[in-house]
Amino acid sequence: MNDTLCKLMYQGFNDTEDYCGPAFDNMLCWEPTASGNISYQKCPIHKGFSQKKHAWRKCNENGTWFNNYKPELTERGYTNYSGCLKPLVMELYNMCDQMGMDTCMKVAGIAREIEMVGLSLSLIFIIVALIIFYTHSILKNNRTKIHKNLFIATAIQVVVRLIIYVDQRLASSFMERVDYLCEAFYILLEFSKTATIMWTFIEGLYLHNAITFTVFQEHSYIKIYYYMGWIVPQILTFIWIIAMNYVETDECWYLYNFLPVYWILEGPRNAFIVVNLLFLLNIIRILVLKLRKSELGEIQQIRKAVRAAIFLVPLMGTSNILFLIDYRTFKDSRKFAIWSYTTYFLISFQGFFIATLYCLLNGEVRNAVKNSLSLYMSLRNHRRHHKNSSVEMGMPGIDLKIRNHNKSTFLMRSRNMNHSTETQI
Membrane topology for this entry (predicted)? Predict the structure, then answer.
């Protein structure tokens, strides 16, 4: 539909001062309306609109459409779509209207840029961390298995978010033009968010058990962790998908996170976050008690554990609690900006924090990488030395002996290092 087609639909209409002529407002075609009257139509299919409500426009006494005191709308007229907005969308609109629409959009745009930078950086660091864990066999233990699953869940979430955000920046969204593709990406996003929080919870549970007591036997608890980390998010996501089929949703599930059924996911997530916080508090309490009772030789080790536990706060998903704040009540643009920048910084850089703390700053990982580089440089130097000496002395067997000797020495040191780090907290 366009303005020409709209006028063709009413080509038999004679323009008089008693009527406002047909008009197209880029959404709906409005029929000729008698002066002094209001014309109503059902709301069009549009993001955030309810098709059960009505839009309206007024025809002035002089036979011209009401322009809402905007000269640029004198010819086309003004259509009031405010009644079409769903309640939650209306609250967002009112919030931005009070603080200034331009200011609101500017804050939202900067927050999105922060997200893009944080997600990109997080993806790079997570990939580096996964490469390190999968290429160093000495790092294969139960603790690093949990780390790797947390990295994978976080990487899925980061990749899906980046794809969605890039698609939204396109002039014509590809996802919205393919049936169910948009919904599929949002399903994958919510699954990965739940899986990330579950594996963060498992990290806290593992640390809590290591300091206090062991709940499960060594041979069985890793399997239970796998079920908790991947199966539980699948079950919650499946229940949420079923519930979404019974509620009114827009195309591409626009603003689905404002619907009450979203708490099918948010409720369990926040519960696991709260329990993780309790784990953290108990961990700190136990370590402080041990610090008071320990001998001088143990104090340094416990202090490191306390610092690590404190750094676990953002990794345990506490930044997600900021989303519980009802930001729609913000009327001050400064408060809204502080909330937006802080929340999206912590959320988008979460992968960066996880990879840095659990991998790049981990002493065991750094020693493994350092030893690998030392072995590589040693073999490279010996190979170069052998190449030069074999030409002069004709002794081709030296390089193989040297390589085997250095490799066996490295493996013995690595095993000793791995044994010592496994006994630490």
Answer: Multi-pass membrane protein
- Across residues 169-188, what is the average pLDDT? 84
Q: Which residue has the tokens 């703390």?
A: 357
Kindly report the average pLDDT of the chain as a whole number: 79
**352 Cβ contact partners less than 8 Å away, ≥ 6 residues apart:** 118, 121, 122, 125
Least confident residue range of 229-238, 256-265, 390-399? 390-399
How many residues can be counted in the chain?
425
Model's pTM, two decimal places? 0.77
Return d(Cα 188, Cα 257) in angstroms, integer: 14
Written as six digits, the tokens of 265 are 């996911």
pLDDT band at 423 (very low <50, low <70, confident <90, very high): very low
CATH code reported for the domain at 3-85: 4.10.1240.10
Strand partners, 38: 58
Q: CATH 1.25.40.390: does it fit domain 99-361?
A: no
In this predicted model, which residue has the larger pLDDT, 31 or 173?
31
Q: Which parts of 136-262 fold into alpha helices (H)? A: 142-169, 174-177, 181-211, 221-226, 232-244
Predicted local distance difference test score (pLDDT) of residue 282: 83
Give tens-digit pLDDT for 71-118.
777 777 889 988 888 877 787 878 887 888 888 889 989 999 999 999
pLDDT band at residue 206 under the 50/70/90 scheme: confident
CA dist 20 to 31, 57, 63, 293, 388, Å?
A: 8, 11, 5, 88, 97
Closest to 238 in 3D by CA, of 261, 212, 208, 210: 261
- 49 neighbors 86 (Cβ within 8 angstroms): yes
pLDDT of residue 352: 92
One-letter amino acid of 205: L
User: Closest Cα partner for 144 from 317, 83, 152, 287?
Assistant: 152
Residue 103 structure tokens = 């200011």
Q: Which long-range contacts (CB under 8 A, 24 or more apart) does 392-396 make?
A: none
CA separation for the pair 157, 119 (Å, rounded): 9
Q: Where are the domains of the chain?
A: 3-85, 99-361, 369-422
